[in-house]
Amino acid sequence: MRAFLERLRTSWRRRIAAWALRRQGTDTLPVTVRRGRIYILPTRAGLGFGLLLFFMLVAGLNYGNSLVLLLMFELSAVGLIAMHLCHRNLQDVVVAEAAAGAAFAGDAGLVSLVVANDSQLARYRLEVDALDAPASLADIERGARARVAVAVSTSRRGILRIDRLRIATTHPFGLFRAWTWVHVPLELTVYPRARGARPMPAQGGPHAGAGERGTSDEDEWFGLRPYRDGDSPRQVAWKAYARGAPLLVKEYVASGSQLRVFDFDELRDLDTEARLEQLARWILEAEARGEPYALALPAIRIDAAHGPEHRDSCLSLLARFGLPRAR
Amino acid sequence: MSTRLRQSAWCTGVFLAGVLLHLGTLSSWMSIIALGCSGWALAAAAGRARLPGRAVKQILVITLTIAVLLFFHTLNGLAAGTALLVVMGSVKLLEANRRRDRLIVIGAALFLLASACLESQSLPRVPLYALHAWACCAALAVVANPGSSLTDRAAVRLAGASLAMALPLAAMLFVFFPRLAGGFWAFPKGGQAMTGLSEQMSPGSISDLTDSNDPVLRVTFEGAAPPPEERYWRGPVLHDFDGYTWTVGSHWGVRNETVEPQGRTFTYRTTLEPSSRTWWLALDSIDAAPARARVTFDRQLVGLEPVTQPLTYRAHSHTRTRSSSVLPLPTRNADLNLPRGRNLKARALGQRLRAAARSPDDFIARVLEMFRTGGYEYSLTPPRTDLDSVDDFLFNTRSGFCGHYASAFVTLMRAGGVPARVVSGYLGGEWNPYGGYFIVRQSDAHAWAEVWVEGSGWRRIDPTGVVAPERLQRGILDLLPNAVSASERLLHRLRWLAALQQSWDATKAFWDTQVVGFDFSSQMAVLQRLGVPSPSWPQLAWALAAALAVWLAWAAWQFGRLPRAARPDRIARAYQRLCGKLGRAGLARLPHQGPLGYAGYIAARRPDLAQPVGALLARYAELRFGAQSDVASLEAFERAVARFRLRARGSRES
Question: Rounded mean pLDDT of B147-153?
């Protein structure tokens, strides 16, 4: 029974989401929250408040008591005013920016928004959420803007698509909840979980190099390997090709044995996900030591380097590994 | 202060304020429980105590419910319901940890407010009620906005603004929401007896006279008011006499007299103060009973229920009537009856006077003449009489107030074979120029006599008026200033204080008639004033719908227009000024260029401007797209744009 109700709820929500998307269309930033896209319903507290008003009405009519009726009418009017204030708290808020970052699977991924309030009204307690994650709160002074980060839970490596964000508010009295959906497709890169027990491969794996003498003076000749897509023409051993050999690429080793190559193909006895997780772990370890490393995946190779940018591009490759190209 | 403590303090505060509204009626043990639980809850919120467990709370709930049940013998009714609300709310305070619990506590506080309204609707309490409603709304705002920058002061302001904005709609609903008449369920009304007239009168025991200044009724006449000496407000009619005390008696007559009204009709609207009595005081004599009341055989207006709330009714009266019907025998006998063996001298006097008189009219005239010339004086502090009070008064003390004269007169009439009865009520009334009404007070209490004269029916005779004619013209205060307490004498002497008191009374009267007394008939009157010829339910429903539509349109306009942000904001305007300056120098921004792209474009075209313009554009980008943008840096940017000058390349090179 519970499962059935849950299914019903999910399908109902999906239908509403589809309806809202059809109604509003996909958004491009910046998005101003106009009246037409604000939805509002009473909260549970609001329904309870309504019940309280009903009891007061019955008591007032029953005892012919004008003051109780006046109180009840005043509170009803306050309820209606609260509905308008709640709606207004969201109206014309601007979503100026929205971006999704990256996270390791199992960690929280951050979606960050810049919400602007160009009006003369302070906005209180805007709740921003995505994918049913717990909402992040923001108060925005008049004429100000605020950066709001929503933590989204991730479970699987890959690309987490966030089709819509929700901005809601129950200000001022919690009797109504007004909300809006912003359909800005975002992609959150979910890196593989960094884990695995294998030791880092020994230093001194080969890397492809340009020119006859390598990329730098320290590099030493290592050998030739078959050409792969993505290799630079400058690395190809044109002399050997001229002699009738297949396309080969010259490889060098960094002198002083500073170089590590994390090769997907080397981890033959693990399944794909475990290999990616192991590679992610090595990348973090090497980064922690400040050593350069190269990454070799079946279809692509990244030259040795280190630093946050290098790390992120390597991890992104791992995240996207084997996925159909998005869009 | 932590969020939890702050929220807890608000909830506890409004709940205690709700309990405070019932301070007069609540027994002390309930107040103590409310206080104790509040203290406990606050200490727990401050981290100094632990909240009780589930079992303790369940035991508390059961024990307290039983205590209330034992105390009131019921859970039905206002007092028991309020007590239950107080103790249950107190226990709820002990688990007000989640938002839901806090909301329930605030709901309980609002219910306490409603039950306070049921208890008393008097005007002086209304500011308290308003303050409490305000506090409850503010508490709601605080509880609904945890983790927000909404301060207490902002919450109070928000609640106040909401209540103020809600007032017009509340007033409209109040006027147009159909008032269903009658109760859905009966409930025992707790009312204490109040001072005033009673169903018996013992003129011999002097403390009988009320010297209170409390209002009894207020009356507005539509058209002319009767002169003061005809403003008799009829109360209980006393038939039985035991020689000392007059009572209503057990006689129930049939109302079959055909009353022929004399003189002009007086139409008026009366608002009675609560008295816990069923009688409605009316100008003597009333023509027909208004709704929810009836006229007894002896012309008293009696309501179907005790008057526990201010009550307004409209009626017509004639101050003089005739009747040519015959007095039914049982009534005649009841109104001729005198106690055996009592007041023998008075009876003999009555018989003697009747025998000497040519007609009943002559008899009446002789008795009144005796009062006028017999050395009788009017006094509010006459000596006590013995048990044969009429004899003692007539032949010994010769000093008394209205009750003595009415009592003696009726005794003499009955002794002479003329049916007579004592009527109690009020005489006169003070004109209130601020409210345009007469106010009748307890100190206007009066008693007079009625005699049956064959052919002309019951005739009002006021023997007091013979002895003290001024009593009919003026109130007791003017007549016998020493009869009332010092503070009331002072009030009477100081004109401005009296005026102040009158205007306050007028305000209270307005409140009682126009707000508390507002009912279905008042709604119909409003509709009539709005031009509906014969108003009824459907018209009321239409009026309500129209009022709601007007309000909704107003609200949509009011709340929809405020946050309009369509005008470019200050940052954008400053940016536009900068782009305009560059555009006039032939460096117009292309539509697709963002600020940084534009900077690159300018750097390529005019390397000399790369540094200053690039810096400005970077500042703009920071203001526009950065996470933080404060007013100071915005203003600095505006000044920098204003200072920025550039000359066309040609003029610079020339």
Answer: 84
